[in-house]
Every structure is written in C-alpha cells, then in structure tokens.
Amino acid sequence: MGVTLRKRKNADGTTSLILDIYHNGKRSYEFLKDLKLKTKPSSPIDRQTNKENLELAESIRNKRAQELVSSGYDVVTSFKSNVDFIQYFENYISKYTKKDKRNMEGACNRFKAFMKKEGIKSLTMKQLNENIVFKYSEYLRETSQGEGASSYFKRFKKMIKQAVREKVLLNNPTSDVTIKRDDSLVKQVLTIDEIKILAETPITNGEVRNAFLFCCFTGLSWIDVKELKWKHIDLRNQKLTKVRAKTGTETVVNLHSTPLSMLTEPGQQEDLVFTLPSNTAALKSLRSWVSKAEIQKHITWHCARHSFATNLVHYKTDVTIISKLLGHSTLKYTQRYTHIAEDLKREAVNKLPTI
User: Fold this and answer.
1) pLDDT recorded at residue 313
2) Tyr recombinase domain: from which residue to which, for each copy (predicted)?
3) Is residue 35 within 8 Å of residue 50, measured between CB atoms?
C-alpha cells in the first residue's frame, strides 16, 4: 500500500506529475493535470513555478496516502472532514439514481433554508454535530405538514449514513435524533360531504377549484395535475392514463362524472388541461377557499389524494384496486388508508350526543 509521485516528460516540453497508487493489490494512477512542470526551466520564474507545483503535488500525495491508511481504520482525514457539507450533499444527489431523488433534493433544499434561517453561512462535514441535526429536525417539524418532516429527515439520515461509510464522518450525528411519521392524516382528509360543500363555495380562481376537485376524484398529486395534458385523457372511454412524476409508475383511472364535469373543451394533445398558478399561489387560493367553506381542517393540495383513497376505502373498494389507482408500488402505503377510514368512522360515532 502506498502513493508515489512520478514524472513523465511530454513532447511539448512539459513534465506531467502522476500519483502511482497501490492499494489492496491493485494499481491506479491519478494525473495531476493542472500541475505540469517545465522540463527545462529557462528563467527564475519558471524554476519557482516548478518548485511550487512540486510542493503542491507532494502535499496531494500525502493526503492521498492518509486516505489510504484511514480507510483501514476508524479515522477521518482532515482533507475529508473539511469538505463543504452542502457540496457533499449535492454531489451525493447527483449520483443518486433511486425513485425518491426529488425527495432527496427536497431534503437538501430544506437544509439550505434552515442554514439561512440560523445564519449559518458555511458548514464543513466536521462542523456538523447532533445539536445542528436536532435544530434541523425541529425546523422540519415547524415547516412541514403531514409526513413531510419524517420523509425529508429519512432522506437526510440516508445521506449521512453514506458519509459515515465513506469515512467523511467518523460518527453519525443523526443516530439519536428521530422524527416519527405524522399519523394525523384524519385531519387532512375531506369527506364526500365536505367536498360537496367545497364545490358549492365560491372561489376567485376557477382553475384551482376544478383542478383540486379533479384530484379529489382521481388521486392525482399537485405535480401530476399541473403537468396533465389532453393526451393523458381518453374522453371516449372516460379514462385517464398518466405516468406519476414521483415514482415513474403508470396510473390508469376511470373518470367519474364529477371529474369529467371539471374539464373544459379539449385542446391539442400537448395542451395543458388546467392553467394553474405556482404551487404557493394555488395553495393560498385553496386555503382561502376552505376557510370560506368553513371547513375546520388544515388542507393542502396533497389532501385531495388522501381524500380520494380514504373515500374509496369508506365505500368498500378493494385495497388492491386502490393501490393500482394511486400508482403505489406496494400495498404497504395503501393499507394506511384503511386505518384512516376506521378513525373517521370512530370520530363520527363519538360526535353523537350522550343521554
């Protein structure tokens, strides 16, 4: 095991510097392409430049050697521990290939917002500690709804575990910090009666109204309804076929008369079905509408999807069919709606007066 600095003369009168790395019976080479020497320095400046480049190359060689040694022991080199945290996070995401990449990006963006709120201008890997992680978890709880906080923190912990595996971190600062999944989905579900009240309540933005009610009867998420095009809708057979942006799975939903009534005259295949504002503007309009309808629940756009699933359970739809309609990859995510439906029944019974 070792790292040797080697030189190789080039035809253009320069000398390349190369690290010859031998580790675990394998040899590899790292070319220091920005640190070339002049083979025959003709001036004091050339000689000084050669000297500085050699010193820098030797410094890099030492760091690489330290990394090789530390890879066999529980130590972290200063070279790795001084890596910028956000830079490492973004680099991790750039190589991430799983379906929840958008959630991983969301966790990173939330951490950036957290740093801004806390006045943290920069953060190295060695500066990340349990106190910062705990504050980040509290920030997620304060700024997220439903399962958002636990979802983002789960991805954050996944990235940290990878940093520990790569010995960029020696200890895992997230080990003793947890965010339990928020199971208070009952508050975020609209019953059929509440959806009827909402439909009868005036709203300034008709597109937001129609799109939200459409989602309540199709289970589409915000990103999917915003990107919905006429090519996804088969009016003759009253079907919607769309690949979910989040998972990449195809969803086929038979269109009920209610979502069909939310549609305008069909446009070209590539035209959007609904002309919606930004997510922030749509959410503001939605909350104002819910408040005007006097529905005492914290409703977000994703609640339309929850409501669709829960109401299907309420009307005795098989959980396997619901899973397919939602585009879930497993039944695990769908079965939680059976518990929500039972909670709604229990809540309804508890409202009966005592005698």
Assistant:
1) 81
2) 185-350
3) no
159 contacts 137 by C-beta, under 8 angstroms: no
Q: Does domain 192-351 have CATH number 1.10.1740.10?
A: no
pLDDT tens, position by position, 273-285: 999 998 889 989 9
Amino acid at 125: M
Asked if 221 and 215 touch (Cβ cutoff 8 Å), the reply is yes
Report the candidate in 62, 3, 12 with the shortest Cα–Cα distance to residue 36.
12
Tokens for 32, please give them: 């220091």
**Residue 152 three-state SS:** helix
Domain assignments of the chain as residue spans, ordered by start: 2-75, 80-166, 192-351
Distance CA 186, CA 227 (A): 28
84 φ, ψ (degrees, to nearest 5): -65, 130
Is the pLDDT assigned to residue 98 strictly greater than 70?
yes
Provide the token pair at 219. 């289970």
Cα 187 to chain center, whole Å?
24
In which band, very low, low, confident or very high, does the pLDDT at 226 lie, cut at 50, 70 and 90?
A: very high
Answer whether 144's CB lies under 8 Å from 106's CB: no
- What is the C-alpha separation between 71 and 74, in angstroms, rounded? 7
Question: Distance (Å, rounded) from C-alpha 197 to C-alpha 216?
Answer: 13
According to DSSP, the residues that pair with 193 across neighbouring strands are: none
Per-residue pLDDT tens digits for 304-321: 988 888 888 877 777 677
pLDDT category, 197, cuts 50, 70, 90? very high
Inter-residue contact 226 to 274 (CB < 8 Å): yes
pLDDT band at 111 (very low <50, low <70, confident <90, very high): very high
Query: Could you give the CA distance from residue 315 to residue 345 in angstroms, rounded to a whole number?
Result: 12
